Fold:
Amino acid sequence: MDKRIFRRLVAAGFLKNLTLSIAGMVDCAIVGRFLGAAGLPAMKLALPVFSVLSLFSSILGTGLSVSVSRDLTRGNRERADITFQSVLTVSLLISAACMLVGFACPSAITTLLAGNDFDPAIFVSATVYLSPILISALPILFYDVLGTLAMLEGADRYIQCASLVLPVVNVLGDLIAVRLNTGLRGIAAASGIAYACACCIVAASFLRRHSMFRLKPGRPDVGSLRAVVVFGAPMVVKGLCGILWPLSINRLMLRYGTVSGLAALSIQDAVHYLPASLCSGIASATLIMTGIYAGEQDEDGLRKITASVIRWSLIGGLSIALCLGLAALPILRLFSEDAEVLSLGVSALRLYLFGVPFLVLNLAASSYLQGLGRNRESAMVIFLNHILISISSAFFLARMFGTKGIFASYGICEVIMAAILILNVWAFLAMQGRRTTDVSKRQKTELRRSIHSIREAVDASMQVNRFCLDNGISPKDAHHIALCTEELAVNSLEHGFNDRKRHHLELRSVISEGKLLLRLRDDGRRFDIVERYKMINPDDPTRNIGLRIVFANAEEVSYSSALNMNHVCVKWSANPH
Structure:
């Protein structure tokens, strides 16, 4: 089940980012074909603005994902909803500030990005392009923030629909802009409208009857926002990288390269979003799954995620890099017919694709550390990869080889970072190998199995009974815990698995910090046992006997729905008799 969930999350994230890539490629192609090659450097200069917006959405989106995942694994749905509403309010404030800048002083932003010693025509084009982008900050931010949480809640259909609507509306808007001769301003406005349409679809997922979250801003909760910022802290470094890296490359290209090289990089920026979509899909899936398993202290689940990350990085990264490398020239002809730009563009793309498998691995590694709550290590990986190694390698290679050196720096920095990660993992495993591990004790304090039938549910309850007795729990308490296990499993089988489809029910029992935690997770119909128990008529003791047994014996019962699965968590004291 873990592999299937991971694959589904990767697919949803990949589709979401792929359609954004297609929209960006269409914008770049139309600018290069219909507005002239001078428009490509203008778009390249405006790229850091998208990086700034991405900085805010990454901090809020990833921090929200990890924070809410942990709240849900603890059964604290109310806290998760407060966090969500606080993030909505902050997003609105940031968007209002960006819109004000877009209306009042877009030229000041262009000066900050390009400097004063630049072609006046390209300067004006960049300013014209920037203004509508800043004004559209609200849907751009909300699309990422809401999309991240919608994936966590399992709203796949809404994500898929929004992902398909965005490029369609963007292409239609671009064609209308060309038809009306509105230039770069029309191209940028079309992007803003496309984001708005996609954002509305994602927002609709939170208005459905089964959503756990209320789509409305609320008074910011300081504690919730602090948790979001702490968990999203590594994205601050990543966002700064997204700003400093293109700024540094632009300046280096203008100093050691050519304007044609800058145009080639603009095309590469559009095409690179195709492999970057896979990277983002794997990274987001890693973040969500790691956050859930870390909250549950599920070491076996974390090992499975690690194996999935390595497999997807190598197979997926190599496949997409090979396909794009072979089709580099036909793809680039979509953007320009300029011979020099095409020649440089092929070199830039192929040198970049060399580092794609390593890029996937590096991004997934930082997301994995972030999901574990190891924010300093995650931030360090991002800082080394996207600032220290990337900028320094670009600087030295630019001085030595000019334009081609800058192209090569994209892949080389990823290879160096992957080598550093592999060496650190090897050292960690070697250190772990020197420690003596009591395997029998680990097996004794954790029980895991799958259940597919009533008979297996009965067998599982007997296993839980033996598990409790082996860990010093009194026979009376062990019997009650086993009885609750059977009632919960049978309840899922009878009420959630009655649609004749193949389903999965996973039982995990673990003793940690003096508590016995029983978790049941299934992909059947949504069934909130906590809400159902509140609706039970206390005057009719003959109904809902199973739920009465569970709530009468357990110390704490919580329910959450994430990734289209039911999560039931029951806790008891595990003090020896």
About this structure: The radius of gyration is 26 Å.
